[in-house]
Design goal:
The structure is a single chain. Helices cover about 30% and strands about 25% of the residues. It has 12 helices and 21 strands. Strand 15 and strand 16 form a beta hairpin. The N terminus is likely disordered. This is LytTR family transcriptional regulator DNA-binding domain-containing protein. InterPro entries: GAF-like_dom_sf, LytR-like, LytTR_DNA-bd_dom. It holds the Pfam family LytTR.
Length: about 475
């Protein structure tokens, strides 16, 4: 084993020794991780239980070829490259490497002093190698793609022992509409601590890139709403507008019932969207985007299963462009105009229902069966679970992601801050202005508000 792969846990001090001891026990199958930060403990759990990454891996694997990025993403990568070079200049003599990755954790470029770049190359911390969590375990850039906000991974917090001599800080650039990562920026140092200003460098660099994305998303949302308004005048069938990810921007009263989204009321902020939780619609939107890239006049049709329907419903999907850029699609329900989508493209892969939800109590992971969870609540940058074992922080980094994971397991989004377990609703309370509040099953009689926009979906789900 070369010098970069040797690690002395005592070199990091008492705290480093404690983390290394916890890492050794966790690798051997124990679940108790005292002294380990929650973001790290959750990442270790993913690496061991979900990704099954070998903790004794000595280098990152070669990245699997990804589909070509969109022109908009190319702009993001170019901007991140410029920011990364600037951060590398600010580092001065610090023995560090600044890397830019795509959404899959593949390094697209890196900057730094030649000596550290050469040392990093021993671990494949170099272009065209993959540093996602599923490929290289817990690390700054890979874990940042899984979490929200900047992530610092130091020493024995890395899942792979070969990387314990490194400290990495990463942050992801996310699509402001879907919340999915587009790419990331990472700063890695060998056997030295990052300067206090490192977090500020990364956050500022990504904020500048994210700001441009938000402006574009706000403009495209407003233009998609205008296209819907114009089409609805001529349409006699249920109509909705969705973005390129299949999320709803606006839907009429009938389409909203089929999609399980608020009716006829656009969001005040045109970057906000609603997730209908219809895998086949998402697959159709993605197929339409591919076809529209080659033929702007393409129109397609297929059949999808909608909410509260036992039989599939026909839909027609028409791409919408603005200044030659695809911004979304208009979806008409009950019609079959256009090219029939191939069955393999129209149907999404079967969704595997989650068996358990992971919560955190201090440094301990709590594995919860779904009936134990009453509801999930978004609070700041955290998601909290109300459970039979008390209030626990969720391992899921966002309420949107948790909503998607649990949509087929009897959970429903009832408010921008709440997802509830429908089987745990005991009573429904009506306010004097008609607003709804859900009284949840349990000793505490906890109450969850229902937003006006989500009230129709709640009534349908409860057959009211």
């Amino acid at each position: 084993m070369n010098e970069a792969h040797r690690f002395d846990p005592k070199a990091a001090g008492p705290a480093g020794s404690a983390v290394f001891a916890a890492w050794e026990r966790f690798v051997q199958g124990e679940d108790q991780v005292p002294g380990v930060r929650p973001v790290v403990a959750i990442s270790w759990h993913r690496c061991r239980e979900q990704y099954r990454v070998d903790p004794h891996l000595t280098e990152a694997p070669v990245a699997v070829a990804e589909r070509s990025p969109t022109p908009e993403h190319d702009v993001v990568f170019a901007e991140l490259g410029f920011r990364a070079a600037s951060v590398a200049h600010q580092m001065g003599s610090l023995p560090g490497v600044v890397s830019v990755t795509d959404a899959a954790g593949r390094i697209l470029g890196d900057w730094g002093d030649p000596g550290t770049l050469a040392r990093a190359a021993d671990l494949n911390l170099a272009p065209w190698f993959c540093w996602s969590e599923c490929a290289a375990g817990t690390n700054g850039m890979g874990t940042a793609l899984e979490a929200h906000g900047p992530v610092l991974i130091s020493g024995a917090e890395h899942w792979c022992q070969a990387f314990h001599n490194w400290v990495g800080a990463g942050i992801a650039v996310r699509d402001v509409v879907t919340g999915e990562p587009i790419g990331g920026l990472n700063l890695s140092c060998w056997r030295s601590q990052l300067p206090p200003s490192a977090g500020g460098w990364l956050t500022k660099a990504v904020a500048q890139t994210q700001s441009a994305l938000k402006r574009r998303a706000r403009d495209s949302g407003a233009e998609l709403l205008a296209a819907y308004t114009q089409a609805s005048v001529r349409s006699s069938t249920p109509l909705a507008a969705v973005d390129t990810a299949g999320k709803a921007v606006i839907a009429d009263d009938t389409a909203s019932v089929l999609m399980g989204v608020p009716a006829s009321t656009p969001a005040i902020d045109s970057t906000l969207r609603w997730n209908p939780g219809l895998p086949e619609l998402i697959a159709a939107a993605r197929h339409a985007s591919k076809q529209a890239a080659h033929n702007p006049d393409w129109v397609g049709s297929t059949q999808i299963f909608t909410h509260l329907a036992d039989e599939p419903t026909a839909i027609s999907i028409r791409p919408v462009f603005s200044s030659a850029r695809l911004i979304g699609h208009l979806v008409s329900f009950g019609v079959s105009n256009g090219v029939q989508l191939p069955q393999a493209e129209a149907a999404a892969s079967p969704r595997v229902r989650p068996r358990r939800v992971v919560g955190m109590r201090d440094s301990r992971m709590v594995l919860l069966h779904l009936p134990e969870v009453s509801f999930a609540e978004s609070e700041g940058n955290d998601v909290w679970l109300s459970t039979a074992q008390g209030r626990l922080r969720a391992a899921s980094p966002s309420l949107d992601k948790l909503d998607t994971e649990l949509a087929e397991a009897g959970f429903l989004r009832v408010h921008r801050r709440y997802v509830v377990n429908l089987s745990r609703i005991r009573e429904i309370e009506r306010g004097h202005k008609g607003e709804l509040r859900l009284v949840m099953d349990g000793r505490a009689n906890e109450m969850v508000p229902v937003s006006r926009r989500n009230a129709p979906a709640v009534r349908r789900a409860l057959d009211l």
